[in-house]
Amino acid sequence: MKPAGTSRGVLQEKDSWFIILSDQSQPERVGIGECSVIPGLSMDNPEDMVSMLNGTCMALNHGYALPDLTVFPAIRFALETALNDFESGGKQVLFNTKFTEGTAGIPINGLIWMGSKGSMLEQVAEKLDKGFKVLKLKVGAIDFEDEIDLIRAIRIEHPASELEIRLDANGAWSEGEAISKLDRLSAYNIHSLEQPIAAGQTEEMAEICNLSNIPIALDEELISVVDSGERVKLLQTINPRYIILKPSLLGGLEQSKEWISIAQSTDIQWWVTSALESNVGLNAIAQWTATLDTKLPQGLGTGSLFENNIPSPLEVRGDKLYYRNGGSWDLSYLSG
């Protein structure tokens, strides 16, 4: 994959596993789900991943009870989407919508990875040339003054009426510096900022949400919270403006729907993003997102990051993700 820089470091490669369901009597019917993890972020323990996948597949093959996958959200997502795909006909069309018909695209943000100020400005220019009206910038790894200069330069050329700027700190800041940095950034009409401090500091995050002039979104904060009651308590305590849903990290589509239900009951908005899945996982997430009643731009434009992605009908045109009508999958990449 192309180097992807965040405050947690630069990701150079990323492993994925695939659950493939088939029926010998219907060889053309194949359900596929992707188990995608991000080291240091996903709950799934890499050391136990292969044995848990083997146990899951053994249970499916022999009709045994499935293992407890509560702390393996990526496997839960892979299994859920593989079953959904298989039950829908095994053609990688999990939901029938205008998106899968190819007549409607999903609005997405343009993602700007961390790097030097110059490289980030080049990324910004490229995304704007392609027609993006919402940019999401990773912050928190390079010098803060350079980040301020970068955002100021963007705003001089593109006022808030023309361009929405989202920021993502990936928990890079300490509680003590977060408010002062948010205050300085607020001068540039920032739509929102994800995860200013590391996850697990509930009271501190609640204080930041209360004091910040920029709306705060929770991302990593959601990953380890698997109990429904604890999810409600978390959102009521922190009271963010937004939550970010990554189904691979949250245990799948149904688990993400529960987060949406809780958020809506507390007047918190949300959007969906990928967790750097290949086109298999991204396809499932995008098709599910197309079934939801949301108008906010989503974070689903990561497919081009991979140099060896699985060819699929997914394509970005302008600032929208489309499922190309008549397009085909090349699943030979998964053989062997």
Give the secondary structure arrangement, pairings included.
Blueprint: E1 4-6, E2 9-11, E3 16-23, E4 26-36, H1 46-62, H2 73-87, H3 98-101, E5 106-107, E6 110-112, H4 117-129, E7 134-138, H5 144-157, E8 164-168, H6 175-185, E9 190-194, H7 202-211, E10 216-218, H8 228-238, E11 242-245, H9 247-250, H10 253-265, E12 269-272, H11 279-289, E13 314-317, E14 320-323
Parallel strand pairs: 6-7, 7-8, 8-9, 9-10, 10-11, 11-12
Antiparallel strand pairs: 1-2, 3-4, 5-14, 13-14
Helix pairs in contact: 4-5, 8-10
Provide structural commentary.
The protein is an alpha/beta fold and about 325 residues long. The chain has 2 domains: about 5-85, Enolase-like, domain 1 (2-Layer Sandwich); about 100-335, TIM Barrel. The protein has 11 helices and 14 strands. The chain has helices spanning about 45-60, 75-85, 100, 115-130, 145-155, 175-185, 200-210, 230-240, 245-250, 255-265, 280-290, and strands spanning about 5, 10, 15-25, 25-35, 105, 110, 135-140, 165-170, 190-195, 215-220, 240-245, 270, 315, 320-325. Strands 6-7-8-9-10-11-12 form a 7-stranded parallel β-sheet. Strand 6 (about 110), helix 4 (about 115-130) and strand 7 (about 135-140) form a beta-alpha-beta unit. Helix 4 (about 115-130) packs parallel to helix 5 (about 145-155) and helix 8 crosses helix 10 (about 255-265). The radius of gyration is 20 Å and the shape is globular. The two termini are about 20 Å apart. The model has no long low-confidence stretch (mean pLDDT about 90).
